[in-house]
Amino acid sequence: MLRKIIRKLSPARLIVTAYLIGVIVITGLLMLPISWKPGVRLSFIDALFTAVSAVSVTGLTTVSTGDTFSVFGASVLIFAFQFGGIGIMTLGSFYWFLLGENIGLLERKLIMIDQNRNQLSGLVHLMRLVLLLTLSIELLATITFAVYFYSSGYSDTFGHAIFNSLFHSISAFTNAGFDLFGDSLLRYTDDYFVQSLTMMLIVLGAVGFPVLAEVVEWARGKNKRFRFSLFTKVTMVTHAILIVLGFFAIWLTEIGNSFAGMPLHQQMMNSLFASVTSRSAGLTTIDVSSLHQASLLLISVLMFIGASPSSMGGGVRTTTIAVIASVMVSFARGDKETRMFGRSISKDDVYKSFVFFAMSVLLLIVGIFAVLMAEEHRYDLSAVLFEVASAFGTCGLSTGITGALHDSAKITLILLMFIGRIGMFLFFSLFTSGKKKPDIKYIEEKLIIG
Protein backbone atom coordinates (compact mmCIF):
# COMPACT_ATOMS: atom_id res chain seq x y z
CA MET A 1 0.00 0.00 0.00
CA LEU A 2 2.78 2.40 0.99
CA ARG A 3 4.79 1.58 -2.15
CA LYS A 4 1.74 2.28 -4.33
CA ILE A 5 1.27 5.69 -2.71
CA ILE A 6 4.98 6.45 -3.12
CA ARG A 7 4.96 5.51 -6.80
CA LYS A 8 1.91 7.70 -7.46
CA LEU A 9 3.68 10.76 -6.07
CA SER A 10 6.15 12.65 -8.24
CA PRO A 11 9.75 12.64 -6.93
CA ALA A 12 9.45 16.34 -6.02
CA ARG A 13 6.25 15.83 -4.04
CA LEU A 14 7.72 12.76 -2.37
CA ILE A 15 10.75 14.70 -1.14
CA VAL A 16 8.65 17.64 0.09
CA THR A 17 6.36 15.19 1.89
CA ALA A 18 9.41 13.64 3.55
CA TYR A 19 10.55 17.06 4.79
CA LEU A 20 7.02 17.82 6.05
CA ILE A 21 6.97 14.53 7.94
CA GLY A 22 10.38 15.43 9.38
CA VAL A 23 9.03 18.78 10.56
CA ILE A 24 6.01 17.09 12.18
CA VAL A 25 8.23 14.57 13.99
CA ILE A 26 10.66 17.23 15.21
CA THR A 27 7.77 19.41 16.38
CA GLY A 28 6.29 16.48 18.30
CA LEU A 29 9.61 15.73 19.98
CA LEU A 30 10.12 19.37 20.94
CA MET A 31 6.64 19.42 22.49
CA LEU A 32 7.61 16.66 24.93
CA PRO A 33 8.34 17.90 28.48
CA ILE A 34 11.64 15.99 28.39
CA SER A 35 12.81 18.46 25.72
CA TRP A 36 12.38 21.44 28.05
CA LYS A 37 14.40 22.73 30.94
CA PRO A 38 12.69 22.69 34.37
CA GLY A 39 9.98 25.35 34.68
CA VAL A 40 9.85 26.02 30.92
CA ARG A 41 6.77 25.66 28.73
CA LEU A 42 6.69 25.76 24.93
CA SER A 43 3.62 26.60 22.86
CA PHE A 44 2.77 24.65 19.72
CA ILE A 45 3.47 27.58 17.38
CA ASP A 46 6.90 28.12 18.97
CA ALA A 47 7.70 24.41 18.74
CA LEU A 48 6.60 24.37 15.08
CA PHE A 49 8.59 27.52 14.34
CA THR A 50 11.72 26.05 15.98
CA ALA A 51 11.28 22.75 14.15
CA VAL A 52 10.94 24.40 10.73
CA SER A 53 13.84 26.73 11.49
CA ALA A 54 16.02 23.74 12.47
CA VAL A 55 15.02 21.53 9.52
CA SER A 56 15.44 24.43 7.10
CA VAL A 57 18.77 25.23 8.86
CA THR A 58 17.70 28.86 9.24
CA GLY A 59 18.34 29.82 12.86
CA LEU A 60 15.47 32.23 13.46
CA THR A 61 14.06 31.51 16.91
CA THR A 62 11.09 32.71 18.91
CA VAL A 63 12.60 31.41 22.15
CA SER A 64 16.12 31.25 23.58
CA THR A 65 17.56 27.86 22.62
CA GLY A 66 19.94 27.59 25.56
CA ASP A 67 17.36 28.69 28.14
CA THR A 68 14.47 26.63 26.75
CA PHE A 69 15.74 23.22 25.69
CA SER A 70 17.24 20.43 27.77
CA VAL A 71 20.07 18.19 26.59
CA PHE A 72 17.46 15.94 24.96
CA GLY A 73 15.81 18.91 23.23
CA ALA A 74 19.18 20.21 22.03
CA SER A 75 19.99 16.71 20.74
CA VAL A 76 16.73 16.73 18.77
CA LEU A 77 17.80 20.02 17.22
CA ILE A 78 21.21 18.55 16.30
CA PHE A 79 19.44 15.74 14.44
CA ALA A 80 17.19 18.31 12.73
CA PHE A 81 20.27 20.26 11.57
CA GLN A 82 21.74 17.13 10.00
CA PHE A 83 18.40 16.10 8.52
CA GLY A 84 17.82 19.47 6.91
CA GLY A 85 21.44 20.35 6.18
CA ILE A 86 22.75 17.39 4.22
CA GLY A 87 19.28 16.44 2.96
CA ILE A 88 16.80 13.65 3.49
CA MET A 89 18.18 11.58 0.60
CA THR A 90 21.74 11.77 1.93
CA LEU A 91 20.55 10.32 5.23
CA GLY A 92 18.57 7.76 3.24
CA SER A 93 21.72 6.83 1.34
CA PHE A 94 23.53 6.36 4.66
CA TYR A 95 20.79 3.95 5.75
CA TRP A 96 21.04 2.02 2.47
CA PHE A 97 24.83 1.87 2.74
CA LEU A 98 24.61 0.41 6.26
CA LEU A 99 22.14 -2.27 5.12
CA GLY A 100 24.22 -3.03 2.04
CA GLU A 101 21.24 -2.43 -0.26
CA ASN A 102 21.51 -1.33 -3.87
CA ILE A 103 20.32 2.17 -4.72
CA GLY A 104 17.84 1.84 -7.59
CA LEU A 105 16.65 4.23 -10.28
CA LEU A 106 13.85 5.73 -8.16
CA GLU A 107 16.24 6.41 -5.29
CA ARG A 108 18.75 7.99 -7.69
CA LYS A 109 16.02 10.25 -9.10
CA LEU A 110 15.10 11.33 -5.58
CA ILE A 111 18.75 12.06 -4.75
CA MET A 112 19.11 14.03 -7.98
CA ILE A 113 16.12 16.26 -7.17
CA ASP A 114 16.96 16.62 -3.48
CA GLN A 115 20.53 17.68 -4.33
CA ASN A 116 19.36 19.85 -7.27
CA ARG A 117 21.50 17.93 -9.75
CA ASN A 118 20.84 17.64 -13.49
CA GLN A 119 22.17 14.11 -14.12
CA LEU A 120 21.96 10.66 -12.51
CA SER A 121 25.58 9.63 -12.99
CA GLY A 122 27.94 9.85 -10.01
CA LEU A 123 25.21 10.42 -7.41
CA VAL A 124 26.00 7.40 -5.24
CA HIS A 125 29.68 8.34 -5.16
CA LEU A 126 28.70 11.92 -4.28
CA MET A 127 26.49 10.72 -1.41
CA ARG A 128 29.32 8.64 0.04
CA LEU A 129 31.66 11.60 -0.20
CA VAL A 130 29.11 13.98 1.34
CA LEU A 131 28.62 11.67 4.32
CA LEU A 132 32.35 11.15 4.80
CA LEU A 133 33.16 14.87 4.52
CA THR A 134 30.29 15.90 6.80
CA LEU A 135 31.16 13.48 9.58
CA SER A 136 34.91 14.16 9.29
CA ILE A 137 34.57 17.96 9.32
CA GLU A 138 32.08 17.96 12.19
CA LEU A 139 34.13 15.50 14.27
CA LEU A 140 37.36 17.44 13.77
CA ALA A 141 35.66 20.75 14.56
CA THR A 142 33.98 19.30 17.67
CA ILE A 143 37.29 18.03 19.07
CA THR A 144 39.06 21.33 18.30
CA PHE A 145 36.35 23.48 19.86
CA ALA A 146 36.02 21.18 22.90
CA VAL A 147 39.73 21.38 23.71
CA TYR A 148 39.73 25.14 23.19
CA PHE A 149 36.56 25.84 25.18
CA TYR A 150 37.78 23.75 28.11
CA SER A 151 41.38 25.01 28.13
CA SER A 152 40.24 28.63 27.78
CA GLY A 153 37.79 28.37 30.65
CA TYR A 154 34.65 28.87 28.54
CA SER A 155 33.27 25.55 29.87
CA ASP A 156 33.44 24.29 33.47
CA THR A 157 33.69 20.60 32.60
CA PHE A 158 35.07 18.75 29.59
CA GLY A 159 31.71 17.01 29.08
CA HIS A 160 29.98 20.38 28.89
CA ALA A 161 32.66 21.57 26.48
CA ILE A 162 32.16 18.55 24.23
CA PHE A 163 28.37 18.97 24.00
CA ASN A 164 28.60 22.72 23.37
CA SER A 165 31.28 22.10 20.75
CA LEU A 166 29.23 19.37 19.04
CA PHE A 167 26.16 21.60 18.89
CA HIS A 168 28.12 24.63 17.68
CA SER A 169 30.16 22.70 15.09
CA ILE A 170 27.11 21.09 13.49
CA SER A 171 25.14 24.34 13.69
CA ALA A 172 27.96 26.23 11.94
CA PHE A 173 28.74 23.62 9.27
CA THR A 174 25.08 23.05 8.39
CA ASN A 175 24.61 26.85 8.47
CA ALA A 176 21.79 26.34 10.99
CA GLY A 177 22.71 29.40 13.06
CA PHE A 178 21.40 28.09 16.40
CA ASP A 179 23.45 28.58 19.56
CA LEU A 180 23.42 27.45 23.19
CA PHE A 181 25.30 30.51 24.45
CA GLY A 182 22.22 32.76 24.63
CA ASP A 183 23.81 35.66 22.75
CA SER A 184 24.90 33.95 19.53
CA LEU A 185 28.67 34.68 19.41
CA LEU A 186 28.66 38.15 20.99
CA ARG A 187 30.81 36.87 23.85
CA TYR A 188 33.46 35.88 21.28
CA THR A 189 33.58 39.24 19.54
CA ASP A 190 37.30 39.53 20.34
CA ASP A 191 38.11 35.81 20.13
CA TYR A 192 39.51 35.40 16.63
CA PHE A 193 40.14 31.66 16.95
CA VAL A 194 36.44 30.91 17.52
CA GLN A 195 35.46 33.33 14.78
CA SER A 196 37.97 31.98 12.24
CA LEU A 197 37.07 28.32 12.76
CA THR A 198 33.35 29.16 12.70
CA MET A 199 33.73 31.10 9.42
CA MET A 200 35.63 28.18 7.92
CA LEU A 201 32.78 25.81 8.82
CA ILE A 202 30.17 28.22 7.44
CA VAL A 203 31.95 28.59 4.10
CA LEU A 204 32.51 24.83 3.77
CA GLY A 205 28.80 24.27 4.32
CA ALA A 206 27.72 27.06 1.97
CA VAL A 207 29.82 26.46 -1.16
CA GLY A 208 28.03 23.23 -2.06
CA PHE A 209 28.81 19.52 -1.99
CA PRO A 210 29.74 19.26 -5.69
CA VAL A 211 32.38 21.95 -5.13
CA LEU A 212 33.80 20.12 -2.10
CA ALA A 213 33.85 16.88 -4.10
CA GLU A 214 35.87 18.50 -6.87
CA VAL A 215 38.26 20.12 -4.40
CA VAL A 216 38.86 16.72 -2.79
CA GLU A 217 39.51 15.15 -6.21
CA TRP A 218 41.92 17.98 -7.09
CA ALA A 219 43.73 17.64 -3.75
CA ARG A 220 44.27 13.91 -4.27
CA GLY A 221 46.14 14.67 -7.51
CA LYS A 222 45.45 11.22 -9.00
CA ASN A 223 43.83 12.61 -12.15
CA LYS A 224 46.53 14.54 -14.00
CA ARG A 225 44.02 15.87 -16.53
CA PHE A 226 41.60 17.07 -13.87
CA ARG A 227 39.94 20.46 -14.38
CA PHE A 228 37.35 22.25 -12.29
CA SER A 229 33.84 22.36 -13.73
CA LEU A 230 32.15 25.58 -14.75
CA PHE A 231 29.80 25.19 -11.78
CA THR A 232 32.70 25.12 -9.31
CA LYS A 233 34.45 28.09 -10.94
CA VAL A 234 31.29 30.21 -10.99
CA THR A 235 30.34 29.22 -7.45
CA MET A 236 33.75 29.89 -5.89
CA VAL A 237 34.33 33.21 -7.68
CA THR A 238 30.80 34.50 -6.95
CA HIS A 239 31.06 33.41 -3.33
CA ALA A 240 34.42 35.15 -2.91
CA ILE A 241 33.26 38.36 -4.61
CA LEU A 242 30.16 38.61 -2.41
CA ILE A 243 32.19 38.01 0.76
CA VAL A 244 34.76 40.68 -0.17
CA LEU A 245 32.16 43.24 -1.26
CA GLY A 246 30.08 42.59 1.85
CA PHE A 247 33.16 42.91 4.06
CA PHE A 248 34.18 46.32 2.72
CA ALA A 249 30.62 47.67 2.54
CA ILE A 250 29.79 46.67 6.13
CA TRP A 251 33.09 48.03 7.45
CA LEU A 252 32.70 51.39 5.66
CA THR A 253 29.09 51.70 6.84
CA GLU A 254 29.71 50.78 10.47
CA ILE A 255 33.10 52.43 11.02
CA GLY A 256 31.39 55.50 12.42
CA ASN A 257 28.45 53.67 13.92
CA SER A 258 28.52 50.34 15.80
CA PHE A 259 32.29 49.94 15.24
CA ALA A 260 33.12 53.33 16.76
CA GLY A 261 35.80 52.94 19.44
CA MET A 262 36.82 49.44 18.32
CA PRO A 263 40.43 48.68 17.37
CA LEU A 264 40.92 48.43 13.60
CA HIS A 265 41.65 44.69 13.71
CA GLN A 266 38.41 44.03 15.60
CA GLN A 267 36.46 46.14 13.11
CA MET A 268 37.94 44.14 10.25
CA MET A 269 37.22 40.78 11.87
CA ASN A 270 33.64 41.68 12.77
CA SER A 271 33.04 42.99 9.24
CA LEU A 272 34.39 39.81 7.69
CA PHE A 273 32.35 37.61 10.03
CA ALA A 274 29.20 39.63 9.30
CA SER A 275 29.76 39.26 5.55
CA VAL A 276 30.33 35.50 5.79
CA THR A 277 27.46 34.76 8.17
CA SER A 278 24.93 36.92 6.31
CA ARG A 279 25.07 34.55 3.36
CA SER A 280 23.33 31.70 5.17
CA ALA A 281 24.59 31.04 8.70
CA GLY A 282 22.93 33.50 11.09
CA LEU A 283 25.53 33.43 13.86
CA THR A 284 26.73 36.90 14.77
CA THR A 285 29.49 38.63 16.73
CA ILE A 286 27.76 42.03 16.71
CA ASP A 287 24.40 43.32 17.87
CA VAL A 288 22.36 43.36 14.66
CA SER A 289 19.83 45.82 16.08
CA SER A 290 22.61 48.42 16.46
CA LEU A 291 23.59 48.34 12.78
CA HIS A 292 23.07 51.26 10.41
CA GLN A 293 20.00 51.13 8.15
CA ALA A 294 22.32 50.89 5.15
CA SER A 295 24.01 47.82 6.66
CA LEU A 296 20.64 46.20 7.33
CA LEU A 297 19.67 46.73 3.68
CA LEU A 298 22.99 45.35 2.44
CA ILE A 299 22.80 42.28 4.67
CA SER A 300 19.18 41.75 3.57
CA VAL A 301 20.41 41.58 -0.04
CA LEU A 302 23.19 39.13 0.91
CA MET A 303 20.72 36.94 2.80
CA PHE A 304 18.36 37.00 -0.17
CA ILE A 305 21.17 35.81 -2.46
CA GLY A 306 22.10 33.09 0.01
CA ALA A 307 24.46 30.19 -0.55
CA SER A 308 25.25 27.93 -3.49
CA PRO A 309 23.07 25.17 -5.01
CA SER A 310 23.42 21.69 -3.46
CA SER A 311 24.67 23.26 -0.21
CA MET A 312 23.45 23.76 3.35
CA GLY A 313 22.10 27.25 2.63
CA GLY A 314 19.06 28.71 0.94
CA GLY A 315 18.21 31.90 -0.90
CA VAL A 316 18.07 32.58 -4.63
CA ARG A 317 21.59 31.02 -4.85
CA THR A 318 24.93 32.32 -6.11
CA THR A 319 24.80 30.75 -9.58
CA THR A 320 21.45 32.43 -10.28
CA ILE A 321 22.94 35.85 -9.50
CA ALA A 322 26.10 35.04 -11.48
CA VAL A 323 24.11 34.10 -14.59
CA ILE A 324 21.89 37.19 -14.34
CA ALA A 325 24.93 39.45 -13.92
CA SER A 326 26.62 37.82 -16.92
CA VAL A 327 23.49 38.26 -19.06
CA MET A 328 23.41 41.96 -18.16
CA VAL A 329 27.08 42.37 -19.11
CA SER A 330 26.55 40.48 -22.39
CA PHE A 331 23.49 42.58 -23.22
CA ALA A 332 25.40 45.80 -22.54
CA ARG A 333 28.19 44.61 -24.87
CA GLY A 334 25.73 43.62 -27.57
CA ASP A 335 26.64 39.91 -27.37
CA LYS A 336 23.98 37.39 -28.31
CA GLU A 337 25.46 34.66 -26.14
CA THR A 338 26.19 34.65 -22.41
CA ARG A 339 29.70 33.41 -21.70
CA MET A 340 31.48 32.58 -18.47
CA PHE A 341 35.03 31.22 -18.15
CA GLY A 342 35.22 30.45 -21.86
CA ARG A 343 31.92 28.56 -21.91
CA SER A 344 28.50 29.54 -23.27
CA ILE A 345 25.60 29.40 -20.82
CA SER A 346 22.59 27.44 -22.07
CA LYS A 347 19.40 29.34 -22.85
CA ASP A 348 17.56 27.05 -20.45
CA ASP A 349 19.81 28.05 -17.53
CA VAL A 350 19.40 31.74 -18.38
CA TYR A 351 15.64 31.32 -18.54
CA LYS A 352 15.48 29.46 -15.23
CA SER A 353 17.73 32.03 -13.51
CA PHE A 354 15.46 34.93 -14.39
CA VAL A 355 12.30 32.98 -13.52
CA PHE A 356 13.67 31.84 -10.16
CA PHE A 357 14.91 35.34 -9.37
CA ALA A 358 11.58 36.97 -10.29
CA MET A 359 9.58 34.45 -8.27
CA SER A 360 11.93 34.87 -5.30
CA VAL A 361 11.45 38.64 -5.38
CA LEU A 362 7.69 38.12 -5.58
CA LEU A 363 7.79 35.77 -2.57
CA LEU A 364 9.84 38.32 -0.67
CA ILE A 365 7.34 41.10 -1.42
CA VAL A 366 4.36 38.93 -0.48
CA GLY A 367 6.11 37.91 2.75
CA ILE A 368 6.88 41.52 3.68
CA PHE A 369 3.29 42.54 2.95
CA ALA A 370 1.87 39.67 5.05
CA VAL A 371 4.11 40.43 8.05
CA LEU A 372 3.39 44.17 7.88
CA MET A 373 -0.34 43.48 7.80
CA ALA A 374 -0.08 41.08 10.74
CA GLU A 375 1.97 43.44 12.87
CA GLU A 376 -0.14 46.60 12.29
CA HIS A 377 2.60 49.27 12.29
CA ARG A 378 4.54 47.79 15.22
CA TYR A 379 7.75 47.51 13.19
CA ASP A 380 9.18 49.60 10.39
CA LEU A 381 9.82 48.35 6.88
CA SER A 382 13.57 47.82 7.31
CA ALA A 383 13.09 45.45 10.29
CA VAL A 384 10.40 43.45 8.49
CA LEU A 385 12.43 43.30 5.27
CA PHE A 386 15.41 42.04 7.25
CA GLU A 387 13.33 39.34 8.98
CA VAL A 388 11.66 38.14 5.77
CA ALA A 389 14.95 38.07 3.82
CA SER A 390 16.53 36.12 6.68
CA ALA A 391 13.72 33.56 6.57
CA PHE A 392 13.75 33.09 2.80
CA GLY A 393 17.55 32.98 2.67
CA THR A 394 17.53 30.48 5.59
CA CYS A 395 20.05 32.74 7.29
CA GLY A 396 18.70 33.34 10.79
CA LEU A 397 19.96 36.85 11.51
CA SER A 398 17.40 39.05 13.26
CA THR A 399 17.05 42.51 14.72
CA GLY A 400 15.40 40.85 17.73
CA ILE A 401 11.72 41.00 16.76
CA THR A 402 11.12 37.30 15.95
CA GLY A 403 9.83 36.22 19.35
CA ALA A 404 7.42 39.18 19.61
CA LEU A 405 5.73 38.61 16.25
CA HIS A 406 2.06 37.66 16.06
CA ASP A 407 1.29 34.02 15.22
CA SER A 408 0.15 34.88 11.69
CA ALA A 409 3.47 36.62 11.03
CA LYS A 410 5.31 33.59 12.43
CA ILE A 411 3.37 31.33 10.05
CA THR A 412 4.45 33.55 7.15
CA LEU A 413 8.09 33.15 8.18
CA ILE A 414 7.59 29.38 8.61
CA LEU A 415 6.39 29.09 5.01
CA LEU A 416 9.27 31.22 3.73
CA MET A 417 11.84 29.17 5.67
CA PHE A 418 10.44 25.93 4.28
CA ILE A 419 10.41 27.22 0.69
CA GLY A 420 13.91 28.58 1.18
CA ARG A 421 15.09 25.14 2.30
CA ILE A 422 13.62 23.09 -0.53
CA GLY A 423 14.68 25.70 -3.10
CA MET A 424 12.89 27.32 -6.02
CA PHE A 425 13.54 24.39 -8.38
CA LEU A 426 11.82 21.90 -6.08
CA PHE A 427 9.12 24.46 -5.25
CA PHE A 428 8.28 24.87 -8.95
CA SER A 429 8.37 21.11 -9.47
CA LEU A 430 5.43 20.75 -7.07
CA PHE A 431 3.14 22.45 -9.59
CA THR A 432 4.25 20.63 -12.74
CA SER A 433 2.32 17.60 -13.93
CA GLY A 434 5.34 15.86 -15.41
CA LYS A 435 3.40 15.07 -18.60
CA LYS A 436 5.12 15.87 -21.87
CA LYS A 437 3.40 18.77 -23.61
CA PRO A 438 3.05 18.97 -27.40
CA ASP A 439 5.88 20.83 -29.11
CA ILE A 440 3.91 23.67 -30.69
CA LYS A 441 5.67 26.74 -32.05
CA TYR A 442 3.62 29.89 -32.54
CA ILE A 443 4.29 32.81 -34.86
CA GLU A 444 6.85 35.13 -33.34
CA GLU A 445 6.00 38.81 -32.88
CA LYS A 446 8.12 41.59 -31.40
CA LEU A 447 7.12 43.59 -28.32
CA ILE A 448 8.28 47.01 -27.16
CA ILE A 449 10.44 46.35 -24.12
CA GLY A 450 11.89 48.92 -21.72
Number of strands: 2
- Runs in which pLDDT lies below 50 for 5 or more consecutive residues are 94-99
Distance between the termini: 55 Å
Largest sheet: 2 strands, antiparallel
Total helix count? 18
Helix-strand sequence:
HHHHHHHHHHHHHHHEEHHH
Outline? globular
Task: Give the fraction of residues assigned to helices.
Answer: 55-70%
Mean pLDDT: 87
Strand content: under 5%
Helix-strand makeup class: mainly alpha
The total domain count is: 1
Radius of gyration: 22 Å
Strand order of the largest sheet: 1-2
InterPro entries: Cat_transpt (IPR003445)
Protein name: TrkH family potassium uptake protein
GO molecular function: monoatomic cation transmembrane transporter activity
Keywords: Cell membrane, Ion transport, Membrane, Transmembrane, Transmembrane helix, Transport
Report on this model:
It is found in: Cell membrane. Its main location: membrane. This is TrkH family potassium uptake protein. Keywords: Cell membrane, Ion transport, Membrane, Transmembrane, Transmembrane helix, Transport. One of its GO terms (molecular function) is monoatomic cation transmembrane transporter activity. The chain is mainly α and 450 residues long. It has one domain. It is 64% helix and 1% strand. It has 18 helices and two strands. Strands 1-2 form a two-stranded antiparallel sheet. Strand 1 and strand 2 form a beta hairpin. Helix 8 packs across helix 11, helix 10 runs parallel beside helix 13 and helix 15 crosses helix 16. The longest helix has 29 residues. The radius of gyration is 22 Å and the shape is globular.
